[in-house]
Design goal:
The complex is a heterotrimer of chains A (506), B (111) and C (498). Chain B has 111 residues and is mostly helical. Chain B is built from three helices and no strands. The chains are: A mainly alpha (506), B mainly alpha (111), C mainly alpha (498).
């Protein structure tokens, strides 16, 4: 370990290895699993901060596993977008870990079902660590087949997590989720086969340099895109998402909605705009934008019609994912500087806000025993912090200033007007208004305090159930004010130092 | 060359057949088998890609490594899917029970 | 940071911090909460007066924070923002006193006062906003902070009103955002620098600029309750009286009217608007709103609803003044009405709240003879009503006088006609209330007599309307003095070089 100086690329192994080891330990030891997981998540957060520091100082880095150079070896890479996604995962993951602790201890307190809840907690931690390792690997990986492996890792652990609650509905939903995710990865794998036939390499940098534009590459990209779109749940491939996300346990819903769908989206965006930019045509971009627009409107309308809070939040995810795709026809408007900024802001803000919202839904569910929207009255009196967190997360989903989503929407609007594609701007605006309706439909219920009913707060009410949600909601709200920082990180990676050491510092 | 093409086409057909079954049939076991057929198709294409006639250069090891990884992943996912399918089967029976209970309750209230 | 920047920040914090602390306070700590509120509002007035003095002496303040290229937060103290900030802070102090008295014994007070403080912070933010992006930020936050106040009672009716309010306000906000982004795409940064953008854009982009102007006016017109975007305002009357006073006199409608002023004077500039020829459009909308509001007010029996329609009508005087932006006299009339209308309307709402809270009177038909029971309240109400009609020496007369003079100077005789008709209608819907209250006979017991004590009502409810009524008279009498709203507005108009 003496080789681990601050400037060695080997640090980027830690976000993958740490959660893997922690998952193994959580599986082996049945006690203190929370402490192990928390330590891993904290360490992960610190390492990600270190990696960002490395990026700012040395620029983009490569780490060749075992000293093997591509095309034979497998390499990892850090750059602006990857590190911001890692940071998103680390921060949201930290909050979700804390929340899950509060959630499970509250449920275990319930004597008749304590055993079952204990078992759920027992399996939650190793699976969550595995998922975290998969996600971190996905963001860091620079090898297209390696990405397939991480996708499968994520798929397996996510489906098992979704099945954890044991309710019939959730098992059916997670079975379908597993099949869909499998279908997605198989399609992706078929795409890899085509790609390997046409190009003969799997390393992303090499693929980017080849800039091959033959029919094989086109077919490969189409197959990989379809596979990833299935996993990202873009309209009309979203059908599996609401049941799977809404029927899972609250911390699991937060993980699935905030992080897992972002992983496959991140790949899609990278493939389209960085690896194969020459293959992409304007009609294809417009097609994606149209699907995104349909997702925004359809998801929001469905969210307005739901009677259950968690389903509402899940459909809101469908809607919010649409914004990521509406960025496709607009991403290249103002040059490459803006390429990632829209989607990164959208993803960061949505990840924090949506996980906060699922946490709120989970707390409300624990508190009332149900989440029917029309019977939510009076929650404000007993759970003021939770309701506050919901409000702030809602503001962020609506994209009001100063949230991070506002910055993303501003950039969407200005690039759509600058390139005379004003119809995207109209969709973005109506999406925000629809979001306002579904957010406040619930909010107004929270505010009603029925007369003559006194709520007694159940005894072991952990602060861990309320504060992580508020913290995440506040982060997503004030993300807009610290917007220069993510932009600064995004603009790194092409510094002089990085160019003189293309393979990373020795 | 023709050998490669033949195997690849077979693989594609397998993939398409699996996809068809996956979409059309609703039984969980059929779906799992369909996915397995699909992955076999993909592996077949991969192996065919690596094919080099005897004595004409070295064999490319990368597709083989990919197939091996793929098979491991496929096996473990099949196991997981089977467990989940069993659970779904049990709970769907439960569902049926609940439905009959509901209809019984409805009959009683109607009577 | 310079001391001037600290001043701007502390002006915002002086109500923001009390608001946050109030949220954290337990419900029972009434005294601590009241002290906190009063200290905060007094401190805010003091700070704003310091700012006024320095602005008068020719200093300027600015805090700029670049978020992304094109999106900057800019707080800026100029004479116009000083006008609105002073108005809001003074009326906030009075409304706080009133609200403490009004909400005695009612539940959820910490909630109410918390949002109340945030709401005023945001209003001051609107006053200090130095560009359209910052204005938009506070404009949307204003909707968010006033929503809990509108639905404070939690009844189905108030929820419905709140929902309508949100739909109107956020739709307006969305249109506004769209227009701001578009304007920035066309002419670049939109700081409130005083001169508007360069006239060269008018030649090249005139159609687009007209369209953007209409969208911007629609965006702020929702809050300023321009017809046909006024639907939320009468419904929002279900809120408690201090909230209605705040919504109608200080925060929401004034934010909209202030937005119109900013767009006309600072974003576009008088010169460009004349070149674009869109001012008649604004004048038309303002005229329709003035007349429509007055006519609808005539038909209402609910006292607060009548006042609400009266607000719709009166706020458009400001828009009317803005549509005559090339006439300094009309501009003075419009700007000074921002202050005058606030003072008069808050007096009327305080009095209406007193009637409801003391005697349970909500309808005009129940008001017969009420002046004998509550003479001081009705005296204040009468002064406010006279102001609305425009009888000298109240402030209402001053505004109408300047508007009329400006209209004549421009050769627009119809402005005088509109003012005359509107005053007549004002008289038609206020004078019957006054005669009924002063000369009518009490018919049976009051609907619900809630308070019997030494004074006609609780002291904290009585003092604020008397103070504002006094200002309504005094500011009219000393309109020409060195320290009066009119003098300050003249200073503003001088600063704009008109």
């Amino acid at each position: 370990m003496i080789f681990l100086h601050a400037d060695t690329p080997a640090w980027m192994l830690f976000p993958i290895v740490l959660p893997l080891i922690a998952g193994l330990l959580c599986f082996l030891f049945s006690r203190r699993t929370f402490v192990i997981a928390l330590a891993a998540v904290l360490a992960n957060f610190l390492v990600v901060c270190l990696l960002i520091y490395q990026l700012l100082v040395f620029g983009s880095m490569r780490c060749h596993m075992g000293g093997w150079q591509p095309p034979l070896g497998i390499s990892l890479r850090t750059d602006g977008p990857a590190l911001l996604m890692l940071l998103m995962t680390a921060v949201t993951g930290l909050a979700i870990t804390l929340y899950a602790r509060g959630y499970f201890s509250y449920r275990i307190f319930d004597p008749p079902r304590a055993g079952r809840h204990q078992r759920q907690q027992r399996f939650f931690w190793p699976l969550w660590m595995l998922l975290l390792a998969g996600l971190n690997g996905l963001f860091l990986s620079n090898d297209i087949f390696n990405i397939y492996v991480t996708l499968e890792l994520i798929g397996i652990s996510a489906a098992s997590l979704a099945a954890l609650s044991g309710k019939p509905a959730s098992q059916l939903a997670s079975f379908r989720y597993l099949l869909i995710s499998l279908l997605g990865s198989l399609t992706y794998l078929l795409g890899i086969v085509f790609l390997y036939r046409s190009c003969g390499v799997l390393d992303l940098d090499l693929l980017q340099n080849l800039s091959n534009n033959g029919p094989g590459v086109r077919a490969a990209l189409a197959l990989m895109s379809v596979g990833l779109l299935l996993k990202t749940a873009l309209f009309p491939l979203h059908f599996w998402l609401p049941p799977a996300h809404a029927n899972a346990l609250a911390p699991v819903s937060a993980i699935l909605s905030a992080l897992v769908v972002k992983g496959s989206f991140y790949l899609l965006f990278r493939f389209w705009f960085e690896i194969f930019p020459s293959t992409i045509t304007t009609p294809a971009l417009n097609f994606m934008g149209t699907l995104g627009a349909a997702a925004i409107l359809w998801g929001a309308i469905q969210a307005m019609r739901q009677h259950r809070l968690k389903l509402m939040v899940a459909y809101s995810t469908v809607s919010q994912l649409g914004y990521l795709f509406i960025a496709f026809p607009l991403a290249r408007v103002d040059g490459s500087a803006q390429l990632w900024s829209i989607v990164i802001f959208m993803a960061l803000a949505h990840s924090c806000a949506k996980s906060a919202m699922f946490m709120v839904a989970g707390t409300v569910f624990l508190h009332l025993g149900h989440d029917r929207i029309k019977d939510l009255s009076g929650v404000r009196a007993t759970l003021p912090i939770t309701v506050f967190a919901y409000g702030i997360a809602g503001v962020s989903l609506m994209g009001l200033p100063p949230s991070g989503a506002f910055i993303a929407k501003w950039m969407l609007l200005s690039s759509s007007l600058a390139s005379s594609q004003w119809w995207w701007a109209l969709v973005v605006m109506s999406g925000s208004l629809l979001a306002m309706i579904y957010v406040f439909r619930v909010m107004s219920r929270f505010f009603v305090i029925p007369e003559g009913v006194s709520f007694i707060r159940p005894a072991p009410f952990s602060p861990l159930l309320e504060w992580p949600a508020l913290a995440l909601a506040l982060i997503s709200l004030f993300l807009g004010l610290v917007a220069p920082w993510p932009l600064h990180i995004l603009s790194q990676g092409s510094t002089a130092l990085a160019q003189s050491f293309p393979g990373g510092l020795p | 060359m023709i050998t490669t093409l033949l195997y690849s086409l077979t693989g594609l057909i397998l993939f398409a057949m699996g996809l068809f079954t996956l979409i059309v049939h609703s039984h969980p076991l059929r779906k799992i088998l369909a996915v397995n057929v699909m992955s076999t198709g993909v592996f077949l294409i991969l192996v065919a890609t690596a094919y080099t006639p005897l004595g004409q250069g070295e064999i490319d090891p990368v597709p083989h490594a990919m197939v091996l990884t793929g098979i491991v992943v496929s096996v473990s996912i099949t196991a997981l899917a089977l467990i989940l399918a069993c659970r779904v089967q049990e709970t769907s029976n439960l569902d049926l029970l609940e439905k009959s209970k509901q209809s019984k309750a409805r009959k009683e209230s109607g009577a | 940071m310079t001391w001037g920047q600290w001043l701007l920040v502390s002006i915002l914090l002086s109500s923001f911090l009390p608001g946050i602390i109030i949220f954290a306070l337990p419900e029972e700590k009434h005294h601590l909460r009241t002290i906190l509120n009063l200290c905060g509002s007094t401190l805010k007035i003091a700070l704003i007066l310091i700012m006024d003095t320095w602005i008068y002496l020719g200093h300027s303040f600015e805090i700029r924070m670049v978020i992304i290229p094109g999106v900057e937060l800019l707080l800026n103290g100029d004479p116009l923002s000083a006008l609105f900030a002073t108005l809001s802070s003074v009326l906030w102090l009075l409304t706080t006193v009133y609200a403490v008295g009004y909400l005695e014994e009612s539940p959820n007070r910490s909630h109410f006062f918390g949002y109340f403080s945030l709401c005023v912070t945001v209003t001051i933010g609107i006053a200090l906003a130095g560009n359209l992006v910052t204005f938009l930020l506070f404009y949307e936050m204003l909707t968010l902070t006033t929503y809990p106040l509108v639905i404070h009672r939690g009844t189905e009716k108030s929820l419905r009103a709140g929902r309508n309010y949100l739909i109107y306000a956020f739709s307006g906000g969305a249109v506004f955002l769209f227009a701001v982004v578009w304007l920035q795409a066309v002419v670049g940064p939109t700081d409130f620098s005083g001169a508007g953008f360069s006239p060269s854009f008018v030649d090249t982009h005139s159609t687009v600029l007209v369209l953007i102007f209409i969208l911007l006016i629609i965006g702020v017109g929702v809050k300023a309750a321009l017809v046909p975007l006024h639907g939320w305002l009468p419904q929002a009357m279900v809120a408690p009286a201090p909230v209605s006073a705040l919504l109608h006199a200080v925060a929401v409608v004034k934010a909209g009217a202030f937005g119109i002023i900013r767009i006309v004077l600072d974003v576009y500039g008088a010169q460009n608007l004349l070149l674009l020829g869109v001012l008649p459009l604004l004048a038309g909308v303002a005229t329709i709103t003035i007349l429509y509001g007055s006519v609808r007010a005539l038909q209402q029996d609910g006292l607060k609803r009548r006042l609400a329609f009266s607000t719709i009508s009166q706020v458009s005087y400001i828009a009317l003044g803005m549509s005559l932006v090339d006439q300094p006299l009309a501009l003075i009339g419009g700007l000074v009405h921002l202050v005058h209308q606030g003072l008069m309307k808050i007096t009327l709402f305080f009095c209406a709240g007193n009637l409801a809270e003391t005697l349970g009177i909500h309808r005009i038909s129940e008001m017969s003879g009420v002046a004998r029971r509550m003479p001081l309240t009705m005296a204040a109400f009468s002064i406010g009503a006279f102001g609305m009609i425009g009888i000298p020496p109240t402030v209402g007369f001053v505004s109408k006088w300047y508007l009329g003079l400006g209209g004549l100077a421009a050769g627009n005789w119809w402005v005088v006609l509109v003012l005359a008709v509107s005053s007549l209608l004002n008289a038609c819907y206020f004078l019957p209330i006054l005669t009924k209250a002063w000369f009518g006979k009490q018919q049976g017991p009051w609907p619900e007599e809630l308070y019997v004590g030494r004074f006609e009502t609780r002291l904290m409810l009585l003092v604020p309307p008397l103070v504002t009524a006094f200002i309504v008279m005094a500011a009219g009498v000393v309109a020409n003095a060195q320290i009066s709203p009119l003098a300050w507005v003249r200073f503003i108009v001088r600063e704009y070089g008109l």
